[in-house]
Amino acid sequence: MTKKITKILIANRGEIALRVIQTAKEMGIKTVTLYTDEEVTLPHSHAGDESFNLGSGPLKDTYLNQDKIIDIAKKLGADAIHPGYGFLSEKSSFAKKVRDAGIKFIGPAPEAIDMMGDKKTSKIKIQELGVPSIPGYHGDNQEIEFLVKEAKKIGLPVLIKASAGGGGKGMRIVYEESEFQSALEGAKREALNAFGDDTVLLEKYITSPRHIEIQVMSDQHGNHFHLFERECSIQRRYQKIVEESPSPAVSPELRAKMTAAAIKITSGINYEGAGTIELILDTDGSFYFLEMNTRLQVEHPVTEMVTGLDLVRLQIIVAQGDKLPFSQADVKQRGHAIEVRLYAEDPDNSFLPSIGTIKKIGKTTVRDTRLDCGYVDGNAVTISFDPMLAKLISWGETREIAAQKLNLALNDVLFLGLKTNRDYLKRILTLPEFHEGKTYTHFVKTYEEKLQKRQPTKEQIAMAVAAFLLKKDSGTNNNSGTHSGSKTNSIWESLSGFRNV
Ligand code: ADP
Ligand code: ADP
Ligand code: MG
User: Fold this and answer.
1) Pairing of strands 388-396, 336-343
2) Which residue among 135, 371, 381, 475 is buried most deeply as judged by most CB within 10 Å?
3) 210-446 is a CATH 3.40.50.720 domain
4) What DSSP letter does each residue of 99-123 carry, written as one string?
5) How far is residue 366's CA from residue 408's CA, in Å, rounded to a whole number?
6) What is the spatial distance between Cα 343 and Cα 15, in angstroms, rounded to a whole number?
7) Which residue of 238, 289, 295 sits with most ligand 2 atoms within 8 Å of its CB, as the best mutation to test the pocket?
8) Positive or negative CA dihedral for 37, 39, 44, 47?
9) What 3-state class would DSSP assign to 197?
10) How far apart, in whole angstroms, are the C-alpha atoms of residue 141 and residue 155?
11) pLDDT digits (tens, 9 = 90+) for 294-341
């Protein structure tokens, strides 16, 4: 039954809360946002029509407090809840409670989350549907002796994975049998901490894969669409940092096979809403189901830029019970889009998160570029939340043009006052191997040395100083007028060629 949504409570924070507000406004829908005491000055705390202070304390008392969030929605008359990504987005218990309260959950039915949100159960279902999944053990027996036997059967190396996992947490590679016990303990400990569930599964470790995923979108009328692929192979700690569409590794034939497998899954489970079918592509062209994310994905903007569709709008249309207003043939992949995730972290120190106050965020005027950012000047970045600062996405007619625009935009989007991975991302985008499309999931490890920050040599510093002084003398290095050449008088900017490549 179709019923227009009038007010959405956004059970999330940061950039994704702002992203949902944008589309809601365009659709004439009111929004309610949530924030904690320490987020009072963050933009999402006051960007909606109404906002509610969750107080302070651990996440279970704030963004993960299901009953409290549903009470707020009821009190403020919200007729729908958008869960964003992370937090409660893949908690079927939450989706069910929302539905039971007579509120629309902007996402799939709790039954679908139950089936697909868990890696173990989803693999069993996938096998039934005849889509290949990575060889491994996905059963209930969690005894160590048994798991070791299974690992040997699969053949080392194997990957131990938390069944409830997400964000790369609870994963360990085992190369030698002797490492199995400590790896299992580590994975279980991490899984229990992060997800409150230490069930694991075993998978054959594919040594040179690519991560390719298919964006899917289904309505409540049995229409199942795909919005093509994204390649997200460039990762650190099993977490994506660069995402693009189309994938440089996917031919039209392979694309047809992958998208057909995705539709087989969504139609096979009668899915509704937005989702992502993650696949692992092996070097011989075979691909396997990895997991399904039953929500909007961090990297959805690249799909929006190549298809011209607004994924949040489509989610809302589906939640209202309306039909998706297009046919599969209407959905086209146009040009190329690349996203980078800007993190408050130190790539030169094992990507450890960094904290601090953002003095200033740089703006960019590079064409066809989008910055999805949850912060403004003066905001503090703390350890309470994910260290992702923003996503920067550029579109171009070709992959080369998109990469070039994104690299230019990264020059502008500085987060002054914080240690970020910006220069590291620039080094990725300018690496010849990136341009050659050698984007395997071990990219960061394989090119570790080439991606390292390079200190300028004494000769390079001397040359830069000389060039700088010469420019200054000839008066060509001032900032007046509209000339868009050198933007700064800093000697460091003249050296940036050495620092950034
Ligand atoms: P994506 O493919 O969209 O990056 P991820 O699995 O990396 O998906 O998760 C997206 C975000 O949600 C990350 O910031 C991650 O830390 C967070 N996240 C993922 N799973 C969970 C979970 N079960 N509980 C809390 N946060 C999660
Ligand atoms: P998460 O829920 O944390 O996103 P995934 O199962 O999607 O977990 O895996 C995250 C990443 O880990 C993948 O994108 C891939 O790089 C790597 N990975 C996962 N499974 C395998 C595997 N069996 N072999 C090799 N790499 C894998
Ligand atoms: Mg994943």
Assistant:
1) antiparallel
2) 381
3) no
4) HHTT-EESSS-HHHHHHHSSHHHHH
5) 7
6) 13
7) 238
8) positive
9) coil
10) 18
11) 999 999 999 999 999 999 999 999 999 999 999 999 999 999 999 999
Closest residue by Cα to residue 336 from 417, 396, 250: 396
- Tens of pLDDT, residues 173-213: 999 999 999 999 999 999 999 888 999 999 999 999 999 99
- Provide the 3-class DSSP secondary structure of residue 69: helix
Kindly list the strands in the beta sheet with 80-82, ordered across the sheet, starting from the edge strand earlier in the chain.
50-53, 30-35, 7-10, 80-82, 104-105
Structure tokens at 181: 């016990």
Q: How many residues does the chain have?
A: 501
Residue 446, both tokens = 């394989």
What residue ranges in 237-349 does DSSP mark as E strands? Answer: 239-245, 273-281, 287-293, 336-343, 345-346
What homologous superfamily does CATH list for 135-204?
ATP-grasp fold, A domain (3.30.1490.20)
Region for residue 238 given its phi and psi (left: phi exceeds 0; alpha: psi -120 to 50; beta: otherwise): left
Residue 129 CA to ligand 1 center (angstroms) comes to 26
CA neighbor of 106 nearest in space, from 269, 296, 277: 296
Residue nearest to atom 2 of ligand 1 (CA): 297
Task: State which amino acid sits at residue 320.
Answer: Q
The residue ranges of every structural domain in the chain are 7-106, 135-204, 210-446, 458-496
Does the 7-106 domain belong in CATH 3.40.50.20? yes
CA of 290 to the centre of ligand 3 (A): 7
Bond before 246 cis per omega within 30 degrees: yes
The pTM of the full predicted model, rounded to 2 decimals, is 0.90
Query: What 8-state DSSP symbol labels residue 259?
Result: H
